[in-house]
Amino acid sequence: MLAIGGAIGVGLFLGSSVTIRLAGPGVIVSYLLGAVIALIVSYSLVEMAVVHPVAGSFGVYAETYLNPWAGFTVRTTYALVQIIAIGAEVTAVAIYFAFWFPTIPPWIWVVGVSVGLVALNSQQVARFGEFEYWFALIKVLAIVVFIVVGLGLILGLGPRPAVGLSNLTANGGFLPHGWKGVWLALTLVLTSYMGVEIIAVTAGEAESPEVSIPRAMRTIVFRLILFYVLAITIMLAMTPWNHAGTGAGITGSPFVSAFSAVGIPYVAGIMNLVVITAALSSSNTDLYLTTRMLFSLSRGCYAPEWLGRLSANGVPRRALAVSTGGMVAAILLAIYAPAKAFLMLYGVAVAGMLFVWIIILFTHFAFRRALGPERIARLPLRLRFFPYSTWLGIAALLGIVASTFFVEGLQYTVPAFAPFLLLISLAYWKVRRGKSFASGMGLK
User: Fold this and answer.
1) Is omega for the bond preceding 53 within 30 degrees of 0, making it cis?
2) Which residue has the higher pLDDT, 8 or 6?
């Protein structure tokens, strides 16, 4: 449920307005392609998480099987990406509330939501987990209800005439912008699957990770594929794609627009409440992830020692305080650039996550080489068609990196990430030269 909570969020409910504009109904194919890449990354992570269930997850794996620089940069990048993502998600909440309260300044909602999330993450991890479980359950049930109601409208099961599937081929056809549009949409679609890696991050705090981690991963990605593909298909069948995916900037969720278009009373408002819950859930999960990554960096002597201190209830509250940086940025953007705040924050996170996933796949190569065929054969879950599947994942991710230069709002994400990578690399070498430190948390 934590992985679902982290993955099903603003990428589907709000970011889909951008991907639909790029690909039209062909965005359905984009989600299928994204699922293949997500499966490769997920199964690679599970193999490593079962052998090494540690809090630093893929950051520790990269340090152990590649080199200390990779371990440091992937953890630092992931922490920064999640901090930025938190800002994007609380900004999305403000956009959703504008559906009901268009005259209230967005920054008021951003501040209120931020305070509530920080208070929740200050509690014991068991309480956080229980709260997030119910948050994730609400959004899963909502998507199921959306799919059922949407199918009813499409098939005409009720007093209203059948909507049918004509919207999937009208207004320019299924691929109004060709296969180029499908591929460009994949740059943002893939971020909808980013969040499945939380299963590996939570391995250090999970009971019986050798059982629970493979079991969770066997179902999570396939559930996401089912939810995403069905939900997007039904939403595009209910309303023309050029109504759901166009407009000046991002003004709301296309899922809410779909119900508004068919004119069912109150359903659009209920769906808006659901997407608010979805944004709260994913931002809550990302705040957890960021805090644990900063904690891991501190315990590995890559960050200040005070970030690794625990409170009386076992929560790294100092790391939590630093993790609120994205919320501060969201508040400032909500005040000074409310129309562009979401895409600015969301776009910046894209390049960083692509870097993290590429490092994960290179780490998996080294992991397989180090363990040998006998130990690999005993793993409860394995990536099929290795090494070809891993090379396919790396090639696809590199292709997506190149594609960001051609997507409006993402043109500067890679150029902005390059100097950041240089800065954290310089910081790494300064730390290495400045003092002697242990090589991460270590793996026994």
Assistant:
1) no
2) 8
Number of CB atoms found within 10 A of residue 365's CB: 17
Copy the structure tokens of residue 337.
């650039």
Q: CA 160 → CA 72, 163, 238, 251, distances in Å?
A: 57, 9, 13, 28
Q: How does pLDDT run across 161-219, given as a tens digit for each residue?
A: 777 788 888 888 889 888 999 998 888 888 777 777 776 666 656 666 667 777 777 77
Q: What is the pLDDT of residues 393-429, one digit of tens each?
A: 999 999 999 988 888 767 777 887 888 888 888 888 8
Distance CA(261)–CA(239), nearest Å, equals 7
- Tell me the C-alpha distance between 9 and 12, whole Å: 6
Q: Would you list the DSSP string of 176-241?
A: TTHHHHHHHHHHHHHHHHTTTTHHHHGGGGSSSHHHHHHHHHHHHHHHHHHHHHHHHHHHHHHS-H
Distances (CA, A) of 54 to 73, 199, 320, 342: 17, 11, 19, 33
DSSP 300: T
* Contacts of 143 by beta carbon, 8 Å cutoff, 6+ apart: 8, 227, 231
Question: Helix 325-336 vs helix 106-121: angle between axes, to the nearest 10 degrees?
Answer: 170
